[in-house]
Amino acid sequence: MPIPALALTTDPFPAGGAEAAILAIPSFGEGDEPAAGFPGLRTALEAIGFTGAKNAFARVYAPDVSPRPLAVVGLGAEPDANAVREAVGAGARQLTGFDTVAVSVLADVDGAWRAAAEGAALGAYRFEGYKSESAEKSARRRRASSFLIHVPGPVDDAALAAVRAGAEAVALVKDLVSTPADRQSPAQLAEAAVTAVEGLGVDVTVYDEQALAEGGFGGILGVGQGSERPPRLVRLEWAPEDAERHIALVGKGITFDTGGLSLKPAASMVGMNEDMTGAAEVLAVIRAAAQLRLPVRVTAWMCIADNMPSGRATRPGDVLTMLDGTTVEVTNTDAEGRLVLADGLVAASREHPDVIVDVATLTGAILVALGTRHTGVMGHGDAVDAFLRSADRTGELAWPLPLPEHIAEQLDSRIADMRNADMGNRNGGSLFAGLFLQRFIGRTGEGDDAPRIPWVHLDIAGSAMSSTAAYGFTDKGPTGATVRALIDFVAAGGEVQ
Q1: From CA 364, how far away is CA 370, in angstroms rounded?
Q2: Is the model's pLDDT at 102 over the cut of 90?
Q3: Residue 90: strand, helix, or coil
Q4: Kind and range of the H or E element at 60?
Q5: Residue-by-residue DSSP string for 100-140
């Protein structure tokens, strides 16, 4: 999970000690001066056809600007902090073979240095994985291990610490999600959670299969019973003495999803070790909250299981009893994420937090609705608006979706309190799943007429993975989508700010 070292400097660009440099430049046209104070730069840029178009990247020979290798990245016509983050991240991702890189932004943008630092830290991430390659090839594709970010003046240390914590959180998620299932069982993921928060003052409780059975966690047990590797539930708590708000995070942690007896086609099973992204994200967020000593109580619930077919596996038509006693007819064993989340939401509700957020790679339908970059957001209360504002502040793409009452009728089962899927109906699949989860959100007081605890449901099945190509600061592979927004959301106490 190491991220590059980040240092701030007010020295003339490029700072001493840098082996290479990145300049972020807004769009410019005929007669414009793209970089006052850098003589000869415009001529060098025009020679290669670089105009500052958004996210454009190029190596340029400009010895009057920098005697060191120089890369330029485009900010577009109306740059903002998001454009800076994406462009510098794209530069950090593509400028390889150097250990220390200087970065400067040639645009008057509020928070430019912070966005540049975030982009550099995020873009330099690489999962080394299990490749066997020569030292020469490894050196050529090596990304920078240190960045010198140019700032106009003194900067608050806390702001830089927040950048580091956010980048580490995203890196932790990417590391865990990229780990193959043969190296990450439910027990191993639980152990990784314990290790990740060691020494940070986070209390951790791991429920094994016996504790889950004694506690009545029928959803997690039902999904995991077909596997040789038993399920786990991990509860983490960051509880500072000065906390006035309590936010609960619940994450789906399916370490491998075959679909169970409702077996997926072969092509759809590829990458299903990534179905634990939600659990990885809630772990990363609570870790960041502890690192930053945020004055908010945070509990995180990682609902972890393998979804495998076997003679013990849950069958279509079986009825599971959730933690709150609700009976669920399992009509589709491949709609398993909502079953493990149901138990986690009930457990979280019993502690009466101010807000509950669940995060899950939940439905393929969300890709049909929103594509691969937007997170689907559902829920109720002002918490939804609060999350959307956090997403906007951090440059995360998110879109609100409804929870229509008329679709709730489809949850009815002939033999149980409800069913987990409406087989044969392809309409509104993400909304059906959200409505299913809503049933397990506890109430703020006694009685059925008490309002439910404010709740946000994040369906990241599309946004959690870039399966086709890299973009901005994001490599092909896991994206860490919503992690930075959730850290901001927690820092705001889950309230609109």
Answers
A1: 10
A2: yes
A3: helix
A4: strand 57-60
A5: EEEEEE-S--TTHHHHHHHHHHHHT----TT----HHHHHH
Are the C-beta atoms of 85 and 75 separated by less than 8 Å? Answer: no
* pLDDT attached to residue 52: 93
Who's near 214: CB < 8 A, 6+ residues apart?
none
Q: Backbone dihedral region of 352: left (phi > 0), alpha (psi from -120 to 50 degrees) or beta?
A: left
Q: Which of 421-425, 444-448, 487-491 has the lowest mean pLDDT?
A: 444-448
Higher pLDDT, 35 or 315: 315
Asked if residue 301 lies in contact with residue 248, where contact means CB atoms within 8 angstroms, the answer is yes
**Residue type, position 137, single letter:** K
Which pTM value belongs to this model?
A: 0.97
Give catalytic residue positions: 264, 338
Which neighbouring-strand residues pair with 299?
237, 248
Check: CB of residue 446 under 8 Å from CB of residue 352. Answer: no
Query: Average pLDDT, stretch 123-134?
Result: 87
The packing angle between helices 157-178 and 483-491, to 10°, is 140
Contact between 396 and 484 under an 8 Å Cβ cutoff? The reply is yes
CA distance 407 to 449: 21
Query: Residue 148 forms beta bridges with which residues?
Result: 7, 102
C-alpha of 479 from chain center: 6
